[in-house]
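TASK: fixed-backbone design
INPUT:
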């Protein structure tokens, strides 16, 4: 666990809407950091760049967690510039001096965050860093987090898992077929719909399955 910020430091959490960013949020709060904002990067289509979630779902998650959501529209080509722009805006508007990220073991990601944090003049915090991959997903399950599988690599994962919540049966399945139980290789993505810190569960209905090359993406629609 790599935590550079001191207790009480004002931070944002890089928010994908999935289990890793949610667990990073839990870890940050337990280390005494003051989380003042979630930060999500979205495309022109209104979907999150990382998980393909609708912006309205990200906003409902933030509402349920009682934390403001900041979004920044980017392309993959403008991601780095967009990251810097958003962080500098949060420094000015929210007086943050640190960021929290859900990275686990990809060293190139850590190096990029170190570079960008230095450029932006903030601390970077990786509460899940170097956790064993199955342990990450088990942590979510054991703590009562409800993470639905909303995107899969159809060439690697059976589509029957789309729309199901992560559980021990799914983790065992991942190990049987030789993929990461936490999707660290991009095999799956999740959307957290309830758990600790949520003031209410998110009401939803299942929509269409959209296919893009080898990916299958499940549409999640909010219900009032």
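OUTPUT:
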């Amino acid at each position: 666990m790599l935590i550079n910020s001191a207790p009480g430091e004002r931070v944002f959490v890089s928010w994908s809407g999935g289990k890793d960013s949610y667990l990073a949020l839990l870890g940050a709060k337990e280390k005494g950091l003051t989380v003042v904002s979630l930060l999500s990067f979205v495309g022109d289509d209104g979907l999150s760049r990382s998980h393909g979630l609708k912006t309205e779902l990200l906003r409902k998650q933030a509402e349920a967690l009682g934390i403001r959501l900041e979004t920044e529209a980017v392309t993959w080509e403008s991601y780095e510039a967009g990251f810097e722009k958003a962080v500098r805006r949060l420094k000015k508007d929210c007086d943050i001096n640190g960021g929290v990220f859900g990275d686990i073991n990809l060293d190139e990601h850590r190096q990029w965050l170190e570079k960008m944090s230095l450029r932006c003049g903030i601390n970077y915090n990786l509460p899940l860093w170097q956790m064993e991959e199955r342990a990450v997903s088990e942590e979510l399950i054991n703590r009562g987090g409800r993470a639905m599988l909303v995107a899969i690599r159809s060439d690697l994962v059976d589509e029957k898992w789309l729309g199901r919540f992560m559980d021990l049966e799914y983790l065992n399945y991942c190990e049987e077929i030789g993929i990461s139980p936490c999707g660290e290789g991009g095999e799956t993505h999740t959307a957290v719909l309830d758990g600790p810190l949520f003031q209410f569960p998110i009401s939803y209905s299942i929509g269409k399955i959209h296919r893009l090359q080898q990916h299958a993406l499940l549409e999640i629609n909010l219900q009032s």
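COMMENT: The mean pLDDT is 94.
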